[in-house]
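can u do me a favor
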């Protein structure tokens, strides 16, 4: 008698498990059950998609006015965007905008040119060139009519179609040499 009860319980359990698996399968197919284990990760960005996504940020860096810069930057970045010029220190969006305002005032007409874009999963890596002629003190150097031209490397983390974090490095040592008076 006990064997019959155990056998019936196993059949009921087996039937319930099969039903649960079928229901879960239907939900997955219908897109109603989305768990990381059951869904594949989002597709990696293509280079063309990466260029479209970062376009407004680089337009902001080349903007002729503070208002245009702010508007473009806000359209390209998440509200919680962090701008990191150092491994240990990142600025929030309002602080980064303030730094860009100061840079635009010191170097009006600054140009940032994209030289190469690499899409890597949810990251976009940009090799660029930044150039300009300061009209106010910049990098601790008084304006002299000299210009600078330096390579830049930017790594952007993308989330929900916006830039969430930017890590960047510029060759400011070269810019200082280019802007400094020549020594005999």
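np, heres the sequence
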């Amino acid at each position: 008698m006990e064997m019959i009860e155990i056998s019936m319980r196993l059949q009921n359990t087996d039937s319930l498990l099969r039903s649960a698996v079928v229901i879960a399968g239907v939900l997955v197919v219908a897109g109603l059950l989305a768990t990381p284990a059951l869904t594949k990760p989002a597709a990696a960005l293509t280079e063309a998609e990466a260029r479209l996504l970062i376009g407004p940020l680089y337009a902001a860096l080349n903007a002729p006015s503070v208002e245009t810069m702010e508007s473009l930057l806000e359209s390209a970045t998440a509200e919680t965007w962090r701008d990191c010029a150092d491994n240990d220190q990142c600025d929030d969006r309002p602080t980064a905008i303030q730094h860009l305002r100061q840079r635009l005032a010191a170097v009006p007409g600054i140009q940032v040119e994209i030289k190469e874009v690499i899409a890597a999963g949810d990251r976009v890596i940009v090799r660029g060139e930044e150039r300009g002629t300061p009209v106010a003190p910049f990098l601790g150097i008084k304006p002299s009519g000299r210009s600078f031209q330096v390579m830049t490397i930017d790594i952007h983390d993308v989330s929900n179609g916006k830039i969430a974090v930017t890590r960047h490095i510029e060759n400011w040592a070269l810019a200082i040499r280019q802007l400094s008076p020549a020594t005999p």
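The longest helix spans residues 2-30. hope that helps!!
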